[in-house]
Structure formats: structure tokens, C-alpha cells
Design brief:
This is Sulfotransferase. Pfam families: Sulfotransfer_1. GO terms for molecular function: sulfotransferase activity. It comes from Fodinibius salipaludis. Keywords: Glycoprotein, Transferase. The chain has a domain of about 180 residues: Rossmann fold (3-Layer(aba) Sandwich), CATH 3.40.50.300. By secondary structure, the chain is an alpha/beta fold. The strands form two sheets. A five-stranded parallel sheet has the order 2-3-1-4-5. The chain has a two-stranded antiparallel sheet with strand order 6-7. The longest helix is centred in the last third of the chain and has 22 residues. It is built from twelve helices and seven strands. It is globular and about 55 Å long. The N and C termini lie far apart (about 40 Å). Helix content is about 40%, strand content about 10%. β2, α2 and β3 form a beta-alpha-beta unit.
Amino acid sequence: MKPNLFIIGAPKCGTTSLASYLAEHENIFMSPLKEPYYFSKNIKMKEQISDLGEYENLFKDVSKQHKIIGEASTHYLFSKTAVPDILRYNESARFIVMLRHPIDLFQSLYKERLRSLREEKEMEEAWRRQQERKEGIGIPKHCEDAQLLAYGEWCKIGSQIEQLYSQVDPSQVHIITLGEMKKNTLRVYKQVLDFLELPYDGKMTFKVYNKRKGVRSTSLQYIIKKFSQLKHRLGIHKSLGIHKLNLKREGSGKELTGDFRKELKNYFRDDLKLLKILTGINYLEIDDTD
């Protein structure tokens, strides 16, 4: 029984929470490893599963009651090859996309790269260094792939939706905004079940997973990262909670002000116009959705 549901991104848009909610439904089986990244083979990640047998083993506990078999890998939306490869694997696959305003997405994505030690510069400098990093210059030693630092491209959600619609029939796609998710999680959950043609299971409580976090110590984070990679190589996909030892709560993420924020708004304006045309989602008049 092959996976037939893919939550494909974007990163830092609530995909962890949604995957967790769906995993509680009796007719849905979600991969115990939240982001196997198997189909985004054009983006290098140390955590990535590259073997088909190992990938399919994630779904060994699927039973007849499971009508939906899913996984959530947030690099698939950005990847040029993931969706076509998924459709070759299972042509009836359905896709869920979660979005947020690109300025807020950039801030959260940058902080995730910083936390994972793939980034080492301050936010504005990291933005300015994108072109030289594409050319292989100044890439941090713990970053496996320069594409991971191409923040502007990761946050062009309009272009990514256009790419997705060129690869798959829009009827196989369901789009959610993080703002909708926060405003009325129950309604969004029911809409997802309708998309999946499953009955509502009465779920009323919705915990928020993967809240914005920073790290207390980069040295300790390096040790935790190495442990996580070892655990992955041993085939252990269940979280042991060790990463939580080095986390600290961060603020709202709305630190950008002045000229840099204006620059980002100008950078994303045409892409947001495209997003509005394709989906009706209008982020043009606001700075973020959080």
C-alpha cells in the first residue's frame, strides 16, 4: 500500500501540526518519520532517506482501516523533481500545501537554518549573501546544499504553486494558509477531511506543534545534530526528545523594520500577485499572517 497523501510544504507553515492531527484519525496512517525527504533527491540533506525499501518500511504498519497513507516533507514543494517523481510512484496521489506570507516565512526559515547549524550569519547578511552562495562561496560547513540557503527562492510561494499546477491537476491539491489554521483550526481540519473524502471523527482539541524556538548553545546543538544523524543511520525514527534540551522560546519573529522590510516587500510583490491570480490568496496588503 503506497503513500497516497503528501503534505509538501512550505517549510515553517504548520505542517507538523497538521500531520499530527491527521495521524490521530482512525482512517489515516502518517509516516512515523515526519520528513523522510525521499522524493526531493535534488536537494541534499543528511536526514534524507535515499533507499526505496527503507522509505516504504516507514509504512509497514498500515492496515486495511487506513484509507489514507501519508507523509509530510516540506522540501517537495520547492523541489523541481519531487512532485513528478511522486506521480510516477503513485499517479493518484493527493497533495496538501500550507502557506504563509513570504516575509514571515523567510524569518522563520532563516531561524530554522540557524538552529540546524546550516546558517551562521545574521539575518540581513544571510539574505545579501544568497548569490555568492549559489556560486559556492561562503557556505557554512554544516550546510549540505547551497540551495538550502536560497531564501528568496524558498519563499516565492506563488512561483512554487505555479510549478505545482503545471505538474498535477489542481483537483488533487488542497491549499491552507497558516492564518486560516490559527484562526479556525477545526474548520481547516474538517475541510482537509472533506478533501480526503473521510468522515469527521469528532476531534475538538488541537495542540500546536513545533512552536518557534531558538537554541541556547551552538556547541550543544552540534552534538545533538550528530546524535540525530547517528539515530537516523541506525533506522531509529522515533523522536527521543533530546533536541528539546537545547531549545528556548523566541519572540514573534517580526523583528524586520525599515528599509530591509521594504526591500523584501518589493522583492516578493510580483510573486504575490501571481499567487493571488492562481489561488485567490491575497497577501499584498499585509506584512505577515502571524
